[in-house]
Amino acid sequence: MGAHGRLSSQAARRSISRTLWSGQPCRSAATVVATQPAASKVLPFEAIPHSGHNAWINLFQFWRSNSFQNLHHVMQRNFQNLGPIYREKLGTHDSINVFLPHDAAQLFRAEGTLPRRMGIDAWTAHRELRNQNCGIFLLNGEKWLSDRLILNKEVISLMGARKFLPFLDTVAEDFVDFLHRQIRKNSRGSLTVDLYHDLFRFTLEGKRHYVLYGERLGLLEERPRPESQQFIEAVETMLKTTLPLLFIPPGVMRWVHRGLWLDHVAAWDAIFKHADRCIQNIYQEFCVAQPCKYSGIMSELLLQEEMSLDCIKANMIELTAGGVETTAMPLLFTLFELARNPQVQAAVREEIRRADALGPQELSKVLSGLPLLKGAIKETLRLYPVGITVQRYPVRDMVLQNYHVPAGTLCQVSLYSMGRSPVVFRNPERYDPTRWLGKQDNGFKALAFGFGARQCIGRRLAEAEMQLFLMHVLRNFRVDTVSKADIKTVYSFAAWRGEAGGWLPPSTPSQEIPQGTVPCCPGLDRGPWGEPPP
């Protein structure tokens, strides 16, 4: 196909794109896509619409315009202007970006038996600098597979989940007690609070400490330990400094942005120091006497004797650092959406009450009877995905949107763009957990935890923690918000911040709130005599 044909194809795609993103009804937009005549010939890789040919000029413009913090919006605009597929060069990265579910399906079919996703050079550079092992988040190939299979049994399998559910349930109950104590200090019987930091402490206490190490940190006490707060600050700094370093070669980042790099290294050093202390305590206790009952994931891995202590340590650190904020944010955004959609909140609470009426049951069975609550979490992750893309390197040549994509090309599925597209979801701006309950085709539309063998290993941990938290909170409180306005968000790798610079009320990773207010600030009310509200 000649140049004229390629230009016509790109123009047609741009025309389709404008229709898709114009806010027209989903039905008509979908029809536009479906009725486009198939191209007679697969177009070459070089013909894919692009956001700029020079990778370093593009990176400089990103830096100058502070586009990293608005990466989710930048990707939306690129899809609007360039169509459902585009190529982007940023520094060392050259990627293909798509957002439609059928393109995601095509990509995952080509991921191979050893799936690879985009690495994080800054994290790997720290491990090399400190002579530390990498966990499965940073590993690829056979080493990744062997470690992943061992960890699967304790972290993501149904059998493993049944063992750690009681730990998560205990911490969720303690968080409700923590809130009750705060409310009792207020004669009005209600509490208006920015829950972000409290949720951070909750997730660190539960999933990241009690479940992993089998010990409590005391973060839900009146005066948490100073070292725990230092760890929280280190995780925040690590995430905040990751994004600016994402597209720069390790050898360059240490000099071009030396201060940023040093902050990043110091944050990881603090995280490792905290984890080292926990791991050594547990290892010493384990050597004295092996536990006779379940006492956390690390103890189970030590009992199995299938991984070296250094490998266990590397993976415990990644699980600890990688899952605190990425669970706290979705919880905060879920509370925000339930607060500004009281009818949804009431329906979820009624579902919980119906489950309670069945009497005491095993926790896994209780959670299986709460589909609307699970739908609420899915809906939050649709609107506020913790990671805005899922990446793979296909192991074979493939065709996406009638363009040839060579094997080994970095391909990204934009979750933020997918979740807010009227082509993919009817009334995407509406918070509607019931959209996940019907028999409609939801294949490859819920990818917040990834897909396949390389999906997030902490998925069951995160889902169970969020479900139990919401179950206990909604059983005891009504959640309100000081503002129902959409929250303006900026992206910070795996977290979201407010435009004024404070951490947003967040959501799975990116949200907004009026300047000068707390992103979510839900108010918690008890009914008369301390009973849950009607």
Automatic annotation (TrEMBL):
The keyword Heme appears for this protein: yes
Which stretches are transmembrane? none
EC identifiers of the protein: 1.14.15.4
Q: Which domain of life is it from?
A: Eukaryota
| Keyword match Zinc-finger | no
Cite the residue spans of the region called Disordered.
504-534
Alphabetical UniProt keywords = Heme, Iron, Membrane, Metal-binding, Mitochondrion, Monooxygenase, Oxidoreductase, Steroidogenesis, Transit peptide
Residue numbers binding heme: 456
| Protein location | Mitochondrion membrane
| Entry GO MF terms | corticosterone 18-monooxygenase activity; heme binding; iron ion binding; steroid 11-beta-monooxygenase activity
Q: Which cofactor does it need?
A: heme
Q: InterPro entries in the record, alphabetically?
A: CYP11_CYP27_families (IPR050479), Cyt_P450 (IPR001128), Cyt_P450_CS (IPR017972), Cyt_P450_E_grp-I (IPR002401), Cyt_P450_sf (IPR036396)
Q: What class of enzyme is it?
A: oxidoreductase
Any single biological process term in GO: glucocorticoid biosynthetic process
Any Gene Ontology CC annotation? mitochondrial inner membrane
- Which protein family is named in the record? Belongs to the cytochrome P450 family.
Any idea what this protein is called? steroid 11beta-monooxygenase
Organism field: Varanus komodoensis
Q: Which gene encodes it?
A: LOC123035256
